[in-house]
Structures are given as C-alpha cells and as structure tokens.
Specification:
Layout: E1 3-11, E2 14-25, H1 27-33, H2 38-55, H3 69-73, H4 77-80, E3 93-103, E4 110-117, E5 126-127, E6 130-132, H5 139-151, H6 159-165, E7 181-191, E8 197-208, E9 223-230, H7 245-255
C-alpha cells in the first residue's frame, strides 16, 4: 500500500501551491523496515522535518516546548496575566466571601465581621471580608488567608477533618464550624457606563469562626474598616451593604453552630 505524506508550508499570506510538497513512501520500504517500525517512522519524520525547513526558507522546525499548551498560547507577560486581570477580565474570576461568626463573649449575641472596602469595585461600601482564590488553594485555605490578611484574625481550621470530609454542604440541622464551610454562591458583576463588565466575580460564600472569640478585627490590606456587627442588625445596614450580605449573614447564623 502506498503511504502519502503531505506537508504544506506557509508563506506570508498563507498556503501557496509553490510551497506544497508531497512525499511518498512505498509499501516496499514499509515492508523492508517493518510496517510501523521505529526506523520507518524516524525516516518519515526526518523527511517531514526537511520539507518543513525548505518551505520555511531553510529554518529548522521549532523545538517542542516544555510549557503547557495554555502557556504556549499565552507567550507574552501581558497575555499570561490576562486570566488574573481584575478589570475587564477575559473570564469571570472566582472570589471567596467569608462570613465570620462568633457568639459575643459578654452578650452571647451572634455577631459577624463586616468590612468597609478601600478599593474598587465596591470602594466605600460595607461587605464581608474575602478576596480572589489563588491557584492550588482550597476554598477553606483562601478563607483563612483572606481573614488573616484583611482582619488579622485566625479562623478555626481542623485540617484533618477538612481533608477527610472535604467541603461539606447543607445538612439537616445546624452544622459545626470546625473549618470554613462553603454554603452559598452569588454573582458580582459591575458594569461601566457603556454596559461592559468591568469586574466580574463568581463568589463562593464560606462560613467560619475565629479561634479566639474575643479577638477584635484590625483593618489591613484593601479594607479601611473592620468590626463585629450583631447579625440581628444587618437588615438595618442593608443600604450600606453589598447586595445579598444581609440575607447571607442571617442564613449562616441559622445554618451553623456558633460557639
């Protein structure tokens, strides 16, 4: 059987007849080397390489890249940063909002940490602390890191329990908060004057509790204020809160066991 290899070399404007080359390997050669053998494959590959080089003006083929296909597509620093760009991102980014709950040591009332954002997209507004999830980071790890960075508070995180149970979902009855638990998901899309999405986050809401219930949050990173607020007062702050915060705070207080 006659095996035909066709290699088309590209000119500046694209494919041209003058640079089209055809190579033929007879079945005799295949039988001599053994059909599908390493030597026949190597010979064919070498011929294709020489044809490619001739069609490209004598240049040798590029060496295979050790980078992933996605990194090969995004070769420049600007292109590689596209996926992490906050403003006008090419795809939605994943964010983690953290509903930090405690029972006030004195009043025993359930409270939640609220912060005032210091940077866009919600600059000046009240919201729950949180931020973008990093590569290789679980939602629980992201929650712990963000609360440490923005509020200076350590969340309770039973790593052994988290490793065994993973991300728990809603069950019948209140759940313990031995580690941060995701419980809701909301859209956060901020559009510019022309209607284009300037910021686009898919936010996973995670509930957690501090290791020290008496710890007071200290605003840092990209927040201007951080303080405890009784969950019962969240509806009063609705006008200043980001959308969904009041409802999510009440839901978390009802769903989880707050020590």
């Amino acid at each position: 059987m006659l095996a035909i290899w066709r290699v088309a070399a590209l000119s500046g404007a694209g494919l041209t007849a003058s640079t089209r080359m055809t190579f033929e390997m007879s079945s005799l050669a295949s039988r001599t080397c053994g059909l599908g053998s390493v030597s026949s494959f190597t010979s064919a590959t070498a011929a294709l390489g020489r044809a490619w080089a001739l069609g490209r003006g004598g240049r040798t083929p590029p060496a295979p890249s050790a980078e992933s296909p996605r990194r090969q597509l995004a070769s420049s620093p600007e292109e590689r940063s596209e996926g992490t760009r906050r403003e006008y991102p090419p795809v939605p980014r994943v964010g983690v909002g953290v509903v930090v709950l405690r029972r006030n040591p004195d009043s025993r009332e359930v409270e939640v940490i609220v912060v005032r954002r210091g940077k866009p997209p919600a600059q000046g507004m009240l919201s729950f602390p949180g931020g973008g999830q990093e590569i290789g980071e679980t939602m629980a790890e992201c929650a712990v890191r963000e609360i440490r960075e923005e509020c200076g508070i350590e969340l309770k995180f039973d790593r052994d329990g988290y490793a065994q149970l993973g991300s728990r979902t809603a069950l019948d009855g209140p759940q313990p908060l031995d580690f941060p638990v995701p419980f809701a998901c909301v859209d956060a899309i901020f559009r510019d004057d022309e209607g284009r999405p300037r910021f686009h986050y898919t936010i996973v809401e995670v509930a957690g509790t501090p290791m020290d219930p008496r710890a007071e949050p200290r605003a840092a990173d990209d927040v201007d204020e951080a303080f405890w607020v009784p969950v019962s007062r969240l509806p009063e702050l609705h006008a200043q809160l980001n959308p969904h915060c009041s409802r999510l705070g009440v839901e978390a207080a009802e769903r989880f066991v707050v020590p």
